UniProtKB/TrEMBL annotation:
Organism: Cephalotus follicularis
Superkingdom of source: Eukaryota
Name this polypeptide is given: UBN2 domain-containing protein
Amino acid sequence: MLVHEYEMFTMHDNEDIKTMFTRFTNITNALQALGKVYTNSEMVRKILRLKKKKAMIATWEDSDDSSSDEEANEEVAQLALMAIEEEEDCDEVTYDELVLLLEKYTCIISELKKKVKYLNIEIKELKSASISLLD
């Protein structure tokens, strides 16, 4: 049953990355207690395959406030995957490093979205000011 859970593991709708990793770790720890141990490489590849299936192409055009947490998670996952693929071979990335990379990119995306929101507000204010000057 647990092996099936591991094999069929997916990220739930509206689930954040941290919760997904906690659930995944709980499954692998339970399997380890029963004698079924997955290597670091197997776990990293499992998560990377999972994220590749769900990941969107990360674009910076998605600056509207209506974007969902799931879309943000997918963008974070795609950026982390791109960083891993550019910097290191999958076999060299530990499971813990993967968790840290995804958390790091979650923070970066969040900060960038805040900056984009601020800049959009500033642009609207400048447009309004220039229209006022023309009148």
